[in-house]
Fold:
Amino acid sequence: MTERMADSLVAPISEGATTARILVLSRTPGMFTTAHGSLLAELARMVGAFAPVVGELENLRRDAALLDGAIQAVATGSGIDEVARQASVALGTEVRAEFVSSGPASPAAASSPAGHPADDDTCRPVPHSRLALRAAARGGAHGTVLGRLADLLGVSIAARRTEFDLELRMNGRFLETLVSGLSDQLESATERARLLGIDLKAPHALVTLGGDTPAERSMLDRVAGGLRALSPQSLLSTFRGCVIILWPMAADGTGEDLRGAVSRLLDAAVPSGLFAGISRVCHTPEAYRDALRESMFAMHVARHTPGTSRVMVAQELGVFQIAAYIVGSGAEREAVERTLGRLLDADRRLKSDLVNTLRAYLVNERRAAHTARALFIHPNTLRYRLDQIRENLGLDLDDPDARFELLAALQLESILSSLRSDGDNSASRLGRLTRPPREGGSLVT
Structure:
């Protein structure tokens, strides 16, 4: 095409670090004058001046589309991870949400991710949370839109927190009414259940989650998020420091393996240090008071019994399931003292280890060599201790009935000792169901 051109004008356009050119061609020789050259140069200057504006408009359109997508994600409950994914696509750089260690996140306080120098990162705190949005963007080029996304997420978090708080309060009042066991309260609970869309005549199980400390907000948020994915029809609340879940079952009372579902819920709630207890399946409103005792006791057994699963089902406690109903009455301590009292007293006075020796001897089926190895003691030391145990108990360790009574008392004593070791924390969890003893006293209700 240029072979037939007889005249031309060229004007450079400076646009940042790049340079473009405007080229004008003519088939007529001598077509362009100096005035044409000046006009073309001015046009090139104007194009160069407007190019950043056009680029900024493109960025604004992109940012507007990104914010609109984020609003849609928040509105549909997709969460912060989906917002970060959309931002990564739109901005062409990885954007992720991360927890900050303490206090509100800030660009100065937030640490740089591995592999990215600190001055290449843009970090914006998410209000009303301990989260921050971080993008690997040199020179903070995306700081403005990242800040707007963080503010949007902060508003969403605040709104959801208010909604969640209201839900917890409503659910909490309902559960307290339900587990009261009083007939007039159960009628009220049935009415509240209808308002919450719950049929108390359909089978449900109570699940109790607890750990070393009472349930706090960030842990509740994680549990609620996991529960929405696993069982969106479940009802969640707190009860005396524990998380209580009313979990719907299939019409036949079986349904999906509840232990497996609760285990996945604990996995979703990490880091939490939580343990779980599951009650029997309830078919009537009257059954929930006992179900709460069962699930809370099973949770404490899972938490304090080495070698057991993080999730304990009440039915799996076997004969010890009855302890859920007597713990707190004083009867359980009397039973332990009646059977093991002299051994416990000897251990306290003489700093001996007779109770633990008896437990190891019975667990190892009275095999002396195995027991000595398990306790890391000499066989002669074991024989001496066994003589002391027989003398204190006045029981024949070869008698099956005596061994059953001793094993039951040892297991119950282990559970009670674990509950007492919690001190005030145990009181906050079990409340009026199980109170920790005063020094020298026994568990009371």
Summary: The beta strands are 7-15, 18-26, 95-99, 121-126, 131-136, 204-210, 235-239, 242-248, 275-278, 311-313. The CA atoms of residues 222 and 270 lie 8 Å apart. The longest strand covers residues 7-15.
